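To whoever picks this up:

The parser on our side crashed when reading a file containing two proteins. I've narrowed it down to the boundary between the first structure block and the second sequence. Both blocks are reproduced below exactly, byte for byte. First block:
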Amino acid sequence: MKIAFLFPGQGSVFAGMGRDIFTEWEEAREVYEQAAYITDRDIAMLSFTAPRQQLIETTNAHLAVFIHSLAVNAILRKQGIVPNFLCGHSLGQFAAITAAGVLTIEGGLRLVEHRGILLAEACKQHSGGMIAVRGCSRKEINDIIRLFPEGKICIAGFNGRDEIVVSGDLAKIKVTMRKLRECGGAVSILGVSGAFHSKAMANAAHYFAMEIEKLDFRNPKYPVVSTASGVLLESAGEIKRDLVNHMLQPIHWDLVLTTLFEQAVDCWIEIGPGKVLTGFVLRWNRGARCFYTYNSASIKKLILDIKIIE
């Protein structure tokens, strides 16, 4: 059996996230306690008690989702469940490389915390948003994007065969939504606070690339899939280079899934909050064996089912 660990992005944040796994699993408590010591922030209290409106703030969502994912990863490793491949959606890529041993938890937290601060500042300077579109072709979306000044609207991600993410200036996003619906598209607003993976993040990307250079990257224990190209990254240098323009590049989850299916992955586990990424897998292949781990009950079911499969 080949297992892929999929780490979600900040859009998967939800109020109360992690409370039950913290209560029931010692491994989770250790991760939250270590994170509190490193950051001098009570990430557990933030995750468990903050209202959703506070949690979705970029700096808070970054830490809450990242630590939830690492806590789940620690639980599964203790149970002997290890991946053959890892990948993460946007913010999730940083949990993926940390879980792969590329960065220590301290290094991963430092990078994620700095990323959240830079993106939050960019969001203050550029009012933006993101939408997910289904039912429109890439050409139809690009035709609409070309109606606006360069850089104001762009494609920010490909979530599979049938969903494209568009990012950009908030006022232009509203017009784009109307035009996409006129073309027959199904459009939904993503729960994020800015125009991520667009030129609005250029200044943040510049300073983030400098932060990356300060950290010690190690070779991954398991291959990490690039969300820019779908290529398997198997060295520290490859991963560092892949992350430099991460804030500006569209997320090619379609290429990630293509690569992992070609590698004969037959067990897909979403590591952290939500079910978004396993949903993309099932839309790609309805027969795929998928698991999620957003609460203690789903983790227990996964552990039981994996033992039965083995």
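<<boundary where parser fails>>
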Amino acid sequence: MSGNDSNFSLVETLGAYGAAVQRTDVLPATDTAAVLMGLYGEVGGIMATAKKRVREPIAFPSDQQAAAQEEFGDALWYFAAYCRRHGVPLESVFADANDHRTPSNPRQSLFELGQAAAALLAEPSEPVVLRGLLVAFAVRYLAALNAAQLSVAEICDRNIAKTHGAFLAPDISSLPNFDSDFGEEEQIPWQFCIRIDQRSSGHSYLRWNNVFIGDPLTDNIRDPDDYRFHDVFHCAHAAILHWSPVFRALIKQKRKSVQEYDHAEDGGRAIVVEEGLTAWLFARAKYADYFSDDNRISYGILKTIQEFTAGYEVAKCPLALWRRAIMQGYAVFREIRQHRGGWVVGDRGMRSLSFRTL
């Protein structure tokens, strides 16, 4: 490939990337400080990932590769956001940078990338000076990317998928439905109402179609925190994600007609995964006002959920759908907690969960 062809491909890729991620930029349009802090932090993440690779060259090489791709992608996202705020096309910066690339050793390229990020913190007002710093950063970014043996195209594709999946509202019509090929008796109901009561003993009880299901629950902790009502979250998973091995077990509608689903998707390990994930998330929620603010659900939390559920069918759900399930699940939980019970109403068609008083 000639230099001109290579430059054209880079410009085309980054032009498409900049347009694709613009919708995910929800930071204030005039706030460059937050963007610069994000950029500097992500460059630090690149260096931290490289440090682990040097320290542990054998351990988890695929994980390190994925981590490096993510860090480079996040740094590019912030750099694109910074260029956008100054009205500078991202692709033009990288076109200039591609013409000035010089070979450097891997460790030196990382140091130079850090220095280039630090130089941007000065935020010069002169357009010519700013342009020079932007191009200098892009030069170092491409050198570090080359040293990590990663391509611009794969970084762009991965970051687009990540940011769209985490921050854009999902298209409900395109979301997966995991039991459409099964009979009604093996499907999560498309609409359901679960009644939750708390008795004078402090135990919570679930009823579905006027039949008690599951076991009476307490908080099972020394300092009461109302975890006794946590089945609300399994209802949210069922209604919004169309997935909940715990909910299927409660209503006895596992997909037993297909052994692979009965054992792998609806079996004991999947139930433990969901219960463990729910308990971990609840521990985080207790210190975040039970997620009364959408901003309390960080990408880090969503990423951990993704790792928890890897290998199960629910991994096909975008992280934005998980955010929706968490927000609606905790909104209903706060109502149940306040009223010491209530109706939990799930609608799979609308991918929603709501609350009604008893």
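After patching the parser it read the second block fine. The chain has two domains: 3-168, 173-356. Residues 177 and 242 are 6 Å apart (CA to CA).
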